[in-house]
Amino acid sequence: MTNQILNERYQVQQELGRQTGRRTYLAQDLHTQQQVVVKLLLLGQDFDWQDLKLFEREAETLKTLENSAIPRYLDYFELDTTEDKGFGLVQTYVEGKSLESHLRSGRTFSEAEVKELAIDLLKILNYLHQQKPPVIHRDIKPSNILLTNRSGNSVGQVYLVDFGSVQNLAATEGSTITVVGTYGYMPPEQFGGRCVPASDLYSLGATLIYLVTGLHPTELPQKDLRIQFRQSSNLSKEFADWLEWMSEPSLSQRFASTKIAIAALKKPRPRHKAALTPRSGNTQPVESKIIFHKYANYLEISLPNQGFNIRHIAMISFATPFALGTTLFANSGGAITQTLQFAAIVVIIFAILAGFCQHLHIRIHKKQLVLIHDLIGFKWHFTRSLKNASHLKLATSEAIKYGMKPWLVIVTSTVSYDLTSYANLTVEEMEWLARELHEYLGLPLHQVED
């Protein structure tokens, strides 16, 4: 097919890849004279409509992404010739070798270089997972990661390519899920059609294991579905622990987010498995001062007074100069000065009382959340809608080890309500409340870090 012109614009230079019903070419854009990658999906006897669904999703996803480490969408066209019929996707070309090609050519990677690659790739994944909805690559492996521009102080520029298996979380709602990926690099949950951001972390962990051992995960022994790589590598205990955590087959025991994975890599800690396991009867922690009531139509969480915080201090600091008198409005007459002093004194009194006496009650109905501020008998309400609530998110207890604040939120289609922003709750209190809310609201509970 060399020199053939596709869509009257893209002149094929060489074939880059071939699969059943798919072709990937390096071509020259005759309009811009730039080299591009053209991916073709051909309509033949082996054509599957799910393939077209994935092909179109790849194109639509690339349209929305703007990251220098990810191929950029350029064009999409229909192919209709006497020889072939199908669809074409055009994207920018990255002149680099895959990690797999580097290893096959004899290149080896030191532990420091693998760590550098890990952080660069986690940053790319963080970008994808922060999209709304989150984008999950689903096929991270050595052949889909390119490396260029190696220098004395850098392992090289990293690129993540081939978004042919991409999925966003919104696409899973109420639809049939296509199981895609590469055996050995797919986490167990992906075999069942379930995919979350942490699924990409497993695939990345398996890819890094390939770099440090020179062996694909399928070539290494397994025990309880865990890849046994230590005996085939020469790594520090801390980094080996980290790789085990990345490639943990149990989703609840794996790093839940790119941020936690990066924090754990930069500040190694002893590995500790912590899953959100049910407590018998889900009882309130003994030391908890929260007052919790279940009523027929709502739950009420009464939080103890939290004492002075930065808001109270800021209010007092701002109001004090006015309360003591100021010359700013001296020429405007005594009435204005007295009014300002009075208002400032009121603000200071309010801040002091709030610091000592204010309590917060959170009422959670099926369709709304009501915040009730109670200050020595005076109450004011703020109502938030839970009509489109989709799930609960709970930070795992591992977050504490890496300097990240745990949290518990209710997620709706438009906004997340952070219940832990109102009080300094312990991890045990968060887990207890998470289960109570899960049971009452009937929402899925995700042990996830954002």
Search tags:
4 domains, 6-stranded antiparallel β-sheet, elongated, alpha+beta, single chain, PH-domain like, 450 residues, Phosphorylase Kinase, domain 1, Transferase(Phosphotransferase), domain 1
Note the topology.
Elements: E1 5-6, E2 10-19, E3 22-29, E4 35-42, H1 49-64, E5 73-80, E6 85-92, E7 97-98, H2 99-104, H3 111-129, E8 135-136, E9 145-148, E10 157-160, E11 167-168, H4 188-191, H5 197-213, E12 222-223, E13 226-227, H6 237-246, H7 258-266, E14 291-294, E15 299-303, H8 310-324, H9 334-357, E16 359-364, E17 368-375, E18 378-385, E19 389-394, H10 398-401, E20 408-412, E21 416-418, H11 427-441, E22 445-447
Parallel strand pairs: 19-22
Antiparallel strand pairs: 1-2, 2-3, 3-4, 4-6, 5-6, 7-9, 8-11, 9-10, 12-13, 14-15, 15-16, 16-17, 17-18, 19-20, 20-21
Helix pairs in contact: 3-5, 3-7, 5-6, 8-9
Beta-strand percentage range: 15-25%
> What is the CATH H-level superfamily of the largest domain?
Transferase(Phosphotransferase) domain 1
Separate helix tally: 11
Based on Cα principal axes, name the global outline: elongated
Q: What is the count of structural domains?
A: 4
Main structural class: alpha+beta
Largest sheet: 6 strands, antiparallel
Straight-line N-to-C gap: 47 Å
Spans where pLDDT lies below 50 across 5 or more residues:
172-176, 272-280
- Radius of gyration, in angstroms, nearest whole number: 28 Å
Tell me, what is the CATH class of the largest domain? Mainly Alpha
Give a count of the beta strands, DSSP E runs of length 2 or more. Answer: 22
Strand neighbour order, sheet with most strands: 1-2-3-4-6-5
CATH architecture of the largest domain: Orthogonal Bundle
Helix content: 25-40%
